[in-house]
Specification:
Helix content: 25-40%
Mean pLDDT: 79
Number of strands: 4
Strand order of the largest sheet: 1-2-3-4
Order of helices and strands: HHEHEEE
Shape: elongated
Strand content: 15-25%
Number of helices: 3
Number of domains: 2
CATH class of the largest domain: Mainly Beta
C-alpha cells in the first residue's frame, strides 16, 4: 500500500502544473527554432507558436468566500438554507486560475447587460514563480 503525506497530495496539482508549463516552454522553444527562418519575413508581430498558448483552456474561479461547519450542520442544509461566508458585503473576491490565486476584484453589474454581473480586477497578486 502506497501512502503519501497530505502535504504531498496538496502540492501535487502545483507540481503537475509546473511540469506542464515547463513542457510547453520546451515545445515552444523547439517550435520557435524550427520556424525562425519562416517567421523572419512575417510582417505581423505574432509568432506561429503564440496560437499554441492562446488556445490552452484554463479554469477560472471567482471565490466569494468560504464557510466551515460540522458534518451535522452540513447534513441539515436544505432548500432555502443560508450559509454564512467568511466575508462581508463589499469585501474583494478572489480570482483563482487553475488553483492559483492570481487576483482580487469587486463584483460589478455589466453595462452591456444589466441582468448579468462580472468582476472588476482591483489587485493582481505578484507571484514568486513568474517567468
Amino acid at each position: 500500500m502506497n501512502k503519501t503525506s497530505p502535504e504531498a497530495d496538496f502540492n501535487a496539482p502545483d507540481e503537475q502544473l509546473d511540469r506542464a508549463i515547463e513542457e510547453l516552454r520546451g515545445v515552444l522553444k523547439e517550435e520557435e527554432k524550427r520556424s525562425s527562418a519562416e517567421a523572419q519575413g512575417t510582417a505581423s508581430g505574432s509568432r506561429p507558436s503564440d496560437s499554441i498558448i492562446m488556445n490552452i483552456p484554463v479554469e477560472v474561479q471567482i471565490v466569494l468566500g468560504s464557510a466551515e461547519m460540522p458534518v451535522s450542520e452540513l447534513m441539515a442544509l436544505q432548500k432555502g438554507s443560508t450559509v454564512a461566508l467568511n466575508r462581508r458585503i463589499g469585501e474583494p473576491v478572489d480570482i483563482v486560475v487553475n488553483g492559483r490565486h492570481i487576483a482580487r476584484g469587486e463584483i460589478t453589474v455589466l453595462e452591456s447587460d444589466p441582468s448579468r454581473f462580472g468582476i472588476r480586477l482591483t489587485e493582481v497578486i505578484a507571484t514568486a514563480r513568474s517567468a
